[in-house]
């Protein structure tokens, strides 16, 4: 079982990988949810509930993944 | 104590993010989390994209708060109390931070929003937020 520092290191690595590859990920996954694990996209779906259901079916631990939504270039938040 | 932040693209521009492990014992909340530091928000919030993994009963969390967006749209959020967040400092030490309350947003719109650590988090943990976008450098620093 990983300790918190190891988990944080994994998030940093997965998130950095996601950031580095965002342009190519955007090309095929616009307006979809993507699941990132071990520096790879392991699942894509337009619907979050469906995506979580599939993750449960394939027994993927949802505590050990990152789920991101891929926004289009024309989508801008003012937060 | 300094906590480094990652500068990453999100929804139209670069934003400073904190990575950590979130826990809340009563509702057995545990998981990886990526949160955007937003000094413009008085409150901290979690997107339904993350909170749905925890399969919480929102009714047990307390009275929801309605948040008004700049566009005039509104969204509700239920309070999750007594949260801890494990993060690492610049020297690679594990640091445990606390937050008395974080709102779990509800609805389709919230599924696509980033998680937010707002001014409440900075105040409770006595952090100074330093951000230099042109150099892509950001960190939190404890005010002693």
How would you portray this structure in words?
The complex is a heterodimer of chains A (79) and B (144). With 79 residues, chain A is an alpha+beta fold. Chain A has one domain. Helix content of chain A is 44%, strand content 16%. Chain A is built from three helices and three strands; from the N terminus they run ααββαβ. Chain A has helices spanning 4-20, 22-29, 48-57, and strands at 33-36, 41-45, 66-69. Chain A has a three-stranded antiparallel sheet. The mean pLDDT of chain A is 89. Chain B is mainly beta and 144 residues long. Chain B has one domain: Acid Proteases (Cathepsin D, subunit A, domain 1, Beta Barrel), CATH 2.40.70.10. Helices cover 7% and strands 54% of the residues of chain B. Chain B contains two helices and eleven strands. Chain B has helices at 48-51, 119-124, and strands spanning 2-4, 6-10, 13-24, 29-37, 45-46, 65-68, 74-88, 94-106, 115-117, 127-132, 137-142. In chain B, the strands form two sheets. In chain B, strands 2, 3, 4, 5, 6, 7, 8 and 9 form an eight-stranded mixed sheet that branches. In chain B, a hairpin with a 4-residue loop joins strand 3 and strand 4. The model of chain B has no long low-confidence stretch (mean pLDDT 92). Chains A and B meet through helix 1, helix 3 and strand 3 of A and strand 2, strand 3, strand 4, helix 1 and strand 7 of B.
Averaging pLDDT over every residue of chain A, what do you get? 89
Mean pLDDT across every amino acid position of chain B: 92
* Beta-strand content of chain B: over 45%
Report the total helices of chain A.
Answer: 3
Please give the radius of gyration of chain B in angstroms.
15 Å
Unreliable spans of chain A: none
Low-confidence runs of chain B (pLDDT<50, min 5 residues)? none
How would a crystallographer describe the biggest sheet of chain B?
8 strands, mixed
Architecture per CATH nomenclature, i.e. the level-2 architecture of chain B: Beta Barrel
Total strand count of chain B, please? 11
* Helical coverage of chain A, percent range: 40-55%
* Overall SS class of chain B: mainly beta
Domains of chain A, number: 1
* Strand numbers in spatial order across the main sheet of chain A: 2-1-3
Overall spatial form of chain A:
globular
The secondary structure category of chain A is alpha+beta
Strand element count of chain A: 3
Kindly state the percentage of residues in helix of chain B.
under 10%
Work out the helix count of chain B. Answer: 2
Report how far the terminal alpha carbons of chain B are from each other: 9 Å
């Amino acid at each position: 079982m990983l300790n918190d520092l190891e988990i944080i290191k994994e998030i940093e690595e997965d998130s950095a990988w996601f950031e580095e590859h965002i342009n190519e990920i955007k090309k095929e996954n616009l307006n979809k949810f993507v699941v990132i694990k071990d520096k790879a996209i392991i699942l894509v779906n337009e619907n979050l509930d469906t995506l979580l259901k599939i993750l449960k079916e394939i027994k993927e631990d949802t505590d050990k993944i990152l789920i991101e939504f891929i926004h289009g270039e024309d989508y801008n938040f003012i937060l | 104590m300094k906590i480094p932040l990652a500068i990453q693209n999100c929804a139209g521009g670069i934003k400073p993010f904190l990575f950590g492990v979130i826990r809340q014992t009563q509702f057995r909340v545990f998981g990886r989390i990526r949160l955007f530091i937003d000094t413009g928000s008085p409150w901290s919030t979690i997107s339904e994209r993350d909170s749905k993994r925890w399969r919480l009963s929102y009714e047990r969390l307390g009275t929801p708060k309605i948040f008004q967006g700049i566009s005039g749209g509104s969204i509700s959020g239920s309070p999750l109390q007594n949260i801890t967040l494990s993060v690492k400092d610049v020297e690679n030490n594990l640091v445990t931070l606390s937050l008395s309350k974080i709102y779990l947003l509800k609805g389709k719109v919230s599924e696509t929003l980033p998680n937010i650590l707002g001014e409440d988090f900075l105040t409770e943990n006595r952090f100074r937020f330093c951000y230099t976008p042109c150099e892509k450098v950001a960190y939190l620093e404890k005010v002693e």
